[in-house]
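Hi everyone, sorry if this is the wrong subforum. Our group has a chain we'd like a structural model of before ordering constructs, and none of us has done structure prediction before. Sequence below.
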Amino acid sequence: MPVQILVVDDERPLVESIRFALEREGYQVVEAQDGVAALELARSQRFDLVILDVMLPGMSGFELCRVLRQESDVPILLLTARTDESDRVVGLDLGADDYVTKPFSMRELMARVRAALRRRGMQQATPLSVGDVVLDPARHEVRCGDRVLPLAPKEYDLLEVLLRHAGRVLSRGQLLEQVWGYDYAGDERTVDVHVSWLRRKLREAGSSVRIEAVRGVGYRLEA
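Answer:
Right subforum, don't worry. Here is the predicted structure as tokens:
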């Protein structure tokens, strides 16, 4: 099931930018412009993450955060134009998992989204399975059939991203951001090197899963 994210903000241009960035990463997006509508959506649907502006008409973002945390363990990422530390502390004390101060770059926001979802994945410990490859977040282990693949940390992270987006082409830039972080200053060839290592280990394990190069774009994992 695709990751579903609720975006709650009444700034239309910002919501459209966030939606575009999230959908480009393969996430499904549902929008709400005020706290009351967002609460109704959160009570009727299952979301993997809530991106929530503090300054909302009607019910404030702080109040919505408090209610959501009482009723759910969904990760909450606060957006705030306030730079005062006490405001950020209030949000975290109410149960928010993270916050981003406006104005922010979409690269930073996507990095924080991925981090929140990774933490959520570790809590839920839901294995990822494509073909004969199974990645178990709880054990931090990858199996091919009855064999455990001996992966280095970045190989594991790279394979996890490829598995989550199986069948979809990811550029080297996207893989760098998701695995090495949005502020990574290294060369894109790092991706090629790690992909070659992954391919070799999958091949040695006799896996039916393959990582295909898409010329001039990036890589796609197929079973």
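For your construct planning: The radius of gyration is 19 Å. The first strand starts at residue 4 and ends at 8.
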